[in-house]
Batch of 4 targets.
Target 1
Amino acid sequence: MPDALAVQGLSMSFSGLKAVDDLSFRVAQGSVCGLIGPNGAGKSTILNCLTRITTPDAGHVEALGFDLLAEPIHRLPERGVMRTFQNLELFTDLSAVDNVAMGCAARLRAGWTAELLGLPASRRATRAAYATADAALAELGLSEIRDRRVADLPFGTQKQVELARALVAEPRLLMMDEPAAGMNHTESTELGRVIRRLGAEHGITILLVEHDMGLVMSACDRIIVVVQGRLIAEGTPQEIRANHKVIEAYLGE
Ligand code: ADP
Ligand code: MG
């Protein structure tokens, strides 16, 4: 399998503090890679660099065969690179289905722009977006909350809506920042199954930042462990679980 993501020498400092320190790792296409580490380890900063929200001080990143750090941020969804956020980026006054349908904009850009301009030719695109959104909600078991206002949903359900919105954009590389936060055990177990399916059936490569070790250990093919911005270990879930450095620095805390 070729790599969907190859990170080389990534570094990012905030006024002297090295949040990401000369980090290198690779993620094979269609695999699920966990990114774990204690609070403040630099995980969100890594995702911010890899999705162009922050510009790193140094490093080279190849994603899906292109130079990720040279790509304008607005082109990333079209290129197949998507992310979800630790603290959600949803339109909370809109319904679940409205939020998810908006995720289709990356694919149906022309149609969506036309819609904003009130052009009738776009109606088909809008219908297609809502059909796609309904399918994604169904796949995640969320059909029941289709018309609920996002603000009225529990945080864990909002995270699932955010995932649905990312999926309708048909990502090839999906980065998720703590998707199980706020979920109960049943929800996070189901999320684990969804994540495995995304890789195995849809060939989506996933970089998963998560604190829920049950989810990380069951969903990931490989795991990388970061402490103070540096990679301290990488391997299969079994290898990580047995790694003394990881247990000392993180799992045993
Ligand atoms: P994690 O997601 O692993 O908890 P973060 O990437 O959020 O860690 O943070 C890594 C380090 O960088 C922390 O020490 C944090 O305080 C610092 N940091 C993150 N973002 C900023 C920022 N915008 N300005 C200053 N410091 C930041
Ligand atoms: Mg974080």
Target 2
Amino acid sequence: MNLAELNKIARAMTAPGKGLLAADESGGTIKKRFDAIGVESTEDNRRDYREMLFRSREAMSSYISGVILYDETIWQNAKDGTPLVRLIEEAGAIPGIKVDEGTQALPNCPGELVTAGLDKLAERLAKYYARGARFAKWRAVIDIGAGIPSMTAISVNAHALARYAALCQAAQIVPIVEPEVLMDGDHDIDRCVEVTQRVLNKTFQELRVQRVALEGMILKPNMAVSGKKSKTQAGVAEVAEKTVRMLKNCVPASVPGIAFLSGGQSDEDATAHLDAVNRIGGLPWPLTFSYGRALQAAPQKAWSGKANNVPAGQQAFTHRAHMNSLASKGEWTT
Ligand code: 13P
């Protein structure tokens, strides 16, 4: 492993004013997004939509450091035959790849999930590297509810994240380590903090046990937020203060960068929260975005599957990317 090179890529992924576009929706998830805008999820439509994003020159060269791709997309070519990966590289951004294979029910732990995809991962990573991927993503999912999460779920998911991260580094690919604590429940923000801290602590413990080099990875955590169904919703200042405290408690300073997931926050909340955490300042790591929904909801709506709407879709994407770029520097205003 060339750690200096991994560190260089990790720092480029979280360079000032830039963040990641998570465009790695699985077949099922992209179908859900397309259903919402009345577009059939065909291979060509998925290609056209993603090509529209990757050809958004201003967004891709000024605000986006890298793109997380799904397996289908990394092998796809644009309409004119150029590999989509090349479009990303030509804009000056780094191609990345989601390598987990989704979640499965965790035996003996009703309602809990474990992420699959370790089988043959070394072979898959080598192919993705040859195609141009320089970083990867693996998402673990932890739900909060009555009696959950169990220590079993936290532990097996942390173990898998560390297995994945070690395999990535051996393949000269920067792992994005994503232990997502869901915001779907009716819990308050303090319960989110308590669970997220447990999850982060266990994840870093496993990373150490499996000798993952922290200088060669990116953390993709959830922010400290109230559950969506909670009667009390924490405001922006509280989210920022508790998010920063939670990260300071759990994330070693040697991690080169942190890129948040949006996790179902509204576009504007995701931007406002990122801006507020960055206004606190004085932290050992850059804090930026690795947003899926919060970057793509607006362009999906503007595009709605029509070639005529490509400029409007690109404009909507560029606007969200610009706002999140400003927020990553604590310079966003409404
Ligand atoms: P969201 O920002 O929509 O949560 O997606 C980010 C992601 O990559 C989840 O794995």
Target 3
Amino acid sequence: MLWQARQRLAALPETSLVRASGLYVTAPVGGPDQDDYLNQVVEVRTALPPRELLAAIHRIEAELGRERLVRWGPRSIDVDILWYDGFSITEADLEVPHPRMEERRFVLEPLAELAPDLVLPSGRTAKQALSGVGGQTVSRVPDKPSPSQSRGPKLDHSAMHAEIRRLAKEKGAVILAHNYQRSEVQDVADFVGDSLGLSRQAAATTANMTVFCGVHFMAETAAILAPDRPVILPDEEAGCPMADMVDVEGLEELRAEHPGAVVVSYVNTSAAVKAISDICCTSANAVNIIRSVPKGKEIIFTPDRNLGSWAAQKAGRWVIVWPGFCPTHGLIGVDDVEEAKAAHPNAKVVVHPECESDVVALADAVESTSGMIRFCREDDAREYLIGTELGMIYRLEKDVPGKKFYPLSQLTVCPNMKLITLDKVLRALQTEGPVVTVEEEIRVKALLAVQRMVEVGA
Ligand code: 13P
Ligand code: SF4
């Protein structure tokens, strides 16, 4: 639920997540009927004024099913504004800075991790305030081990691998996995790749069925390209918040304001949005796709403002960008790049174009996920700082042996990609579901845009 709240916060208009503390477990304060609870402090960059932000937070809490009947009773989710840079207010429903933030260990622990030197209303820094509070038992949840640390014995994994491979053979299934998938899922797949590579595999396969270990728009794209065989997504909940940021209605409105504009949509969109787009692209071929639009034509690019602006600049074109973004890549900040460069001065910085433009500006190379593998293999450096989802580190370590890879941030875990687990892949093969389908009328329209995407090279 904390993940969901965080994602929804990051998906608010003109808002992005800058960074987040680790998770902290706090012993209950409200009596024996309460469970331990989890806390986290996040830093958000937003153009929303405090009251609008508060209203949005209330909506998020309500959507997540917060218990609102008993004001002081147990609450399933509680999101507070602790601090709003340059702003303070003391009103009944909104007090910022939060009046009790200096009294609570469960607030100060994550806050001091995130911003130890933040000067609080008492004049103490968050770190100093933390040393002054006792009482409550608060402990940090250990970070997830990085993919390179997690190569322990995989006994049950290997049994599952064997069963998955046996079933895939028996049923004539091909297993495709995106580069961000868990290492054990990548290891069981027939092909691992970026969105473009996987779309091409899905279009070309002669298998009876495709098991797509990725997110919904990827499986949908496979279903658009190859309607004659079922495409199975092992967890239907694996969506993409960026893809959800653009809808048909909004895009049609924008299109009406720019009649004659060519609509280029990132593959990270729904089939319905693809159906009203002229051409799709992935991060691997966005520059070439933009270049392919006849000069003199206006271009609308959806939904990723970062990929859109970067690709347009590279292509020497001007585009109208939709204001979508990836909440996971948005977690990488300029300070992460500066810190990582200081720690590894000989390393090159390689980032995905979904990163924020100030991060992209500091990079030595901007590549799609498979482009990163090619770049690091051909380049002559020995060490790289990687700005993308953490699954990529495993992939790079495996495909480019002998070189060192460090993530720019430990926070960049796409929760949707990570929904796909080995046991879900196994169940998907056993049950031959859940199948992702696209309504034929939409599929036929979307196919035109997707086919052009598959044809244009990186
Ligand atoms: P790639 O096409 O580079 O694999 O990226 C897909 C994606 O969703 C990145 O967040
Ligand atoms: Fe979507 Fe970002 Fe996850 Fe890629 S990393 S699937 S863009 S949320």
Target 4
Amino acid sequence: MTDLSGRVALVTGGTRGIGLATAKALAEAGATVVLTGRDESRAKEAAAAASASAGLALDVTDAKAVSTLVRGVAKEHGKLDIVVANAGIMEDALLGMIKEDLVDTTLSTNVAGTLHTVQAAARAMMRKKTGAIVVLASIVGEYGSAGQTVYAASKAAVANIARSAAKELGRSGIRVNAVAPGVIDTDLTAGLAEDAKADNIARTPLARLGAAEDVAKAIRFLVSDEASFVTGQVLGVDGGLVL
Ligand code: NAD
């Protein structure tokens, strides 16, 4: 079992799905975990469910709020070792149907939100010259997907936040990696038609949808010392699916 005792971790969008499973997995490995959600009472409930030390309200599109919260967590615990920039949204639209609103919300949440979180994490970790950051890319960002141009573009950007930040932060002892999940059974994919799910399963060598816990375990590996020489990588967690 990966040992994260003594580590302080922050997970954004931790109220459900992959974020909640990650908060649980990090806490089980011994880390002190703070999770965030857009709604304070939901965040507190999720923190209790994940055995996290706190659940705080945070909208990742608000750069100032992200910076203040991350600084506050690092101050309260004396350091910040692990940050998982998980908060994200997905809305499908064919090219001809894409509205400006969808572009704004998707890019401000997935791209700017991840960027704010990585920036704030790097500032907090810089003082101790150690830390591990994981961002949530997607298989769709690697291969593209019809009807998901905006989401795919946002997740390609997220993968490149990891690759670029890793280059910039390596000499400060900070590792940055991404996971690129395939189709994971969470609220995000709950709206997928049954035949689309069946089609994905048929094309997945491991012949099932992923579970949030599958992704959480990969994230736990990447933030642990088991991955001490791994940085700037985008790790597929997709059962072998190629889109
Ligand atoms: P989910 O919808 O179950 O959870 C997303 C979380 O992000 C929620 O807690 C939500 O409240 C939070 N969030 C959304 N916008 C936010 C904002 N502005 N500020 C703060 N929090 C915000 O989705 P999930 O499946 O658990 O996805 C988690 C991450 O993994 C996302 O970035 C998603 O794009 C990515 N991902 C998911 C899949 C999948 O198949 N489920 C595949 C690839 C990538």
